[in-house]
Amino acid sequence: MTIQNMNIASAKELHHQIEVAIEKINANKKPKILTWNGERIVLTPIDGLRAARLIGQWNCLGVYGVDATSEQILDDLCVVIEEMKR
């Protein structure tokens, strides 16, 4: 899925979720694992109980730290969403 194929409301919502994720990562200065549950981006601490299991799942966007950009997260999210369609 690319932004061009999405409707405006969906694109705005995804951008909002990405910005919130970046704000949360920057607020506590610790990397987070980001996953996509089909509706929203979910943040998990890298030292959380489910961390190791999440990293290997198909819906894992990756591990992001304070240097993460919205473009990086959006690119990874598009890959995961595309995989969901298959």
Description:
There is one protein chain. It is globular and about 35 Å long. The termini are close together. It has a three-stranded antiparallel beta sheet with strand order 2-1-3. The chain has 86 residues and is of the alpha+beta class. 49% of the residues lie in helices and 17% in strands. 19% of the residues are buried.
What distinguishing features does this structure have?
single chain; 86 residues; alpha+beta; 17% strand; globular
What secondary-structure arrangement, pairings included, does this model have?
Layout: H1 8-28, E1 32-36, E2 41-45, H2 51-55, E3 60-64, H3 70-85
Antiparallel strand pairs: 1-2, 1-3
Sum this structure up briefly.
With 86 residues, this protein is of the alpha+beta class. It has helices at residues 8-28, 51-55, 70-85; strands at residues 32-36, 41-45, 60-64.
* Strand arrangement in the largest pleated sheet: 2-1-3
Biggest sheet: strands, sense, closure? 3 strands, antiparallel
User: What is the helix tally?
Assistant: 3
- How does the helix and strand content classify structurally? alpha+beta
Summarize the amount of helix as a percent range.
40-55%
Mean pLDDT: 89
Q: What's the count of strands? A: 3
Strand proportion: 15-25%
Low-confidence stretches: none
- The best one-word shape is globular
Radius of gyration, Cα only, in angstroms?
A: 12 Å
The sequence of SSEs as H and E is HEEHEH
**Separation, N- and C-terminal Cα atoms:** 11 Å
